[in-house]
Amino acid sequence: MRRIAPKDWYQVTRLDDDVTSICEPFIREFYRCNIWHVRGRDSDMLVDSGMGVVSLREWVPLVTERALTAVASHTHFDHIGCHHEFECRCVHAAEADLLAHPTRVNTLADPYVADEIFDALPPEPYLSSTYAVKAAPATRLLEDGDHIDLGDRVFEVIHTPGHSPGGIALFEEKTGVLFSGDILYDGPLIEDTYHANADDYLASMERLLRLPARIVHGGHFPSFSGERYRTLIMDWLADKEKTI
Ligand SMILES: [Zn+2]
Ligand SMILES: [Zn+2]
């Protein structure tokens, strides 16, 4: 399989609300995590950091322009690969241990990571067989109701366990912007990881339904409107009721 040069690995797209999407287009869509950059007055926030196969700091200048808080929506390999490159690292307390001691198994690199998840491979010396996430112990542990304050913008931490125990969403009340992580996006959801929990998943979805989101940036797949958000959740809930 051909390899991609580091300079071509990331694709950066500026969206509304001073939110920028950074993605890894050569990873197949289902496995490709969305990395979100949010510009604040005093500092910036990064929600997730991709697979870590090419340095974000080196190849995406946006992430070094200001002080930056790197948040992990949760600790699966596709979301935390470059966290070790940033000084300020936040994760929910329930996954602090995973961020500090990642393994191929506890980050799900095993069984997911193989050459087949790519359309073209990362630059040398990348090898799917030895791929691993670097440890990045958190400098701040998050709990439900905490805030990430960028000066003029404040994001509330919403604990959304289910896909994983320490999953979080981040909600900005002022703008209705929601970063939802992997609990909800506009694509096939993963409800059967080794640390998934069906009761927690249901409770998280019921809680998310009450949130007045206007625009939602998920952990995977394209962003969507608040209306689509409510439809996705209601359809999911209706589906669960049928199977009970
Ligand atoms: Zn993911
Ligand atoms: Zn995940």
Structure description:
This protein has six helices and 13 strands. The termini are far apart. The chain is globular, with a radius of gyration of 17 Å. Helix 5 (198-209) packs antiparallel against helix 6 (226-243). With 244 residues, the protein is an alpha/beta fold. The chain has a seven-stranded mixed β-sheet with strand order 1-2-3-4-5-6-7, with no helix packed on it. Helix content is 19%, strand content 23%. The structure holds zinc ion (2 copies). Residues 33, 76, 78-79, 182, 219-220 line the site of one zinc ion.
How much is the radius of gyration in Å? 17 Å
**Oligomer category:** single chain
**Strands across the major sheet, in which order?**
1-2-3-4-5-6-7
- Residues in β-strands, percent: 15-25%
- Give the distance, in angstroms, between the N- and C-terminal Cα atoms: 45 Å
Task: Write the element-wise H/E pattern from the N-terminal end onward.
Answer: EEEEHEHEHHEEEEEHEEH
Poorly predicted residue ranges: none
Q: Number of helix segments?
A: 6
Query: Which small molecules are bound?
Result: zinc ion
The secondary structure category is alpha/beta
Q: What share of residues is helical?
A: 10-25%
Give me the count of strands.
Answer: 13
Shape: globular
What is the mean predicted local confidence, pLDDT?
97
> How can the largest sheet be summarized?
7 strands, mixed
Short description:
By secondary structure, the protein is an alpha/beta fold.
